[in-house]
Write a structure and sequence with these properties.
304 residues, alpha/beta, 10 helices, globular, 10-stranded mixed β-sheet, two-stranded parallel ribbon
């Protein structure tokens, strides 16, 4: 949240140059406040785990946020009880005439599958097209980011020979971006994917700007210049044991996975992982929610 200061206080410019959000008395007096409406299209098979991870991050703010969960009607999940989906999820036809301040499109375990071969691809495309006119700001995560960049801008994914798994260093490229308020210049974040995207393909699209990059993991965060769409390829929302569970699952499947890098102490899977990305996750989601949703969405949601 911003600090409120007197109009024309000399410290205002100094603080703003340091990427600290300040609000003048005039703006504070004229600001309308209401709960934010955020829709989450949860494509992960582990529905409850993903719900908990995202709600934990979205709750790290004094803002009042009303969250709803969306599922695809064209695919029935098999890793969660139908009663859970019936109770807590809706489908697109039920919300297509409504407006939302924010939309989150999660990742999905769809490595090495072409977008057009995904069972629910047409429905995801329909939702992404709908978001242009019914959502103020959309946050695409991992596979959802690849899907969004492909659908909106025709950018192709590149399959990796080996899965990218572990905790990687990422460099902030746009230090004055409100998304990175409170970030260190280099931040740690989990990666878990077997696809990538060429930096050159991002940089040649006039509507896009590259926000963060990793020498090891490549493109990490991208947004549109109008700040209406964000594409985040890392998993800052992950719990301490998420990569551990994925690694052991792949071992049981006989996939011969690599040990997640920079994750276990001494690269020893028998040791408990140390969390080095918690602050990244908290800041990323709270900054997105505050600066790109709350501070700019219309007070009357019908005007989104």
């Amino acid at each position: 949240m911003p600090i409120k200061i007197q109009d024309s206080l000399p410290a205002q410019k100094i603080l703003e140059d340091e990427n600290i959000f300040v609000m003048t008395e005039f703006r504070a007096m004229h600001q309308d406040i209401r709960p934010l409406n955020v829709l989450i299209l949860n494509l992960m098979p582990t529905k409850i785990v993903t719900e908990t991870q995202l709600l934990r991050k979205l709750s790290n703010t004094p803002l009042q946020v009303e969250v709803e969960f969306l599922q695809t009607a064209s695919y029935t999940p098999t890793h969660v009880a139908p009663s859970h989906m019936d109770t807590f999820y809706t489908v697109f036809d039920d919300i297509k005439d409504r407006k939302f301040d924010g939309l989150i499109i999660t990742g999905a375990p769809l490595d090495y599958i072409e977008f057009e071969d995904v069972d629910y691809w047409d429905e995801v495309c329909q939702i992404m097209e709908w978001s242009k006119t019914h959502v103020h700001c959309t946050f695409h995560m991992c596979w959802g980011a690849f899907a969004g960049l492909h659908y909106h801008y025709g950018i192709e994914k590149r399959d990796l020979d080996q899965k990218l798994s572990g905790i990687y260093k990422h460099k902030v490229l746009k230090k004055k971006s409100p998304l990175f308020r409170g970030f260190d210049d280099i931040f740690m974040a989990p990666q878990s994917r077997a696809m990538s995207m060429d930096r050159e393909d991002i940089e040649k699209v006039p509507e896009l700007e590259l926000l963060a990059y990793s020498d090891q993991a490549g493109v990490t965060m991208v947004k549109t210049k109008d700040s209406r769409k964000f594409f985040v390829l890392c998993h800052a929302e992950y719990d301490q044991n998420t990569l551990d569970l994925e690694y052991k699952r792949d071992l049981e499947k006989g996939l011969n996975p690599i040990v997640p890098v920079n994750y276990y102490p001494d690269d020893d899977p028998s040791k408990e992982p140390i969390v080095t990305w918690r602050s990244t996750g908290q800041l990323l989601f709270s900054n997105w929610l505050n600066y790109y949703v709350y501070q700019s969405t219309p007070y009357d949601i019908k005007n989104v």
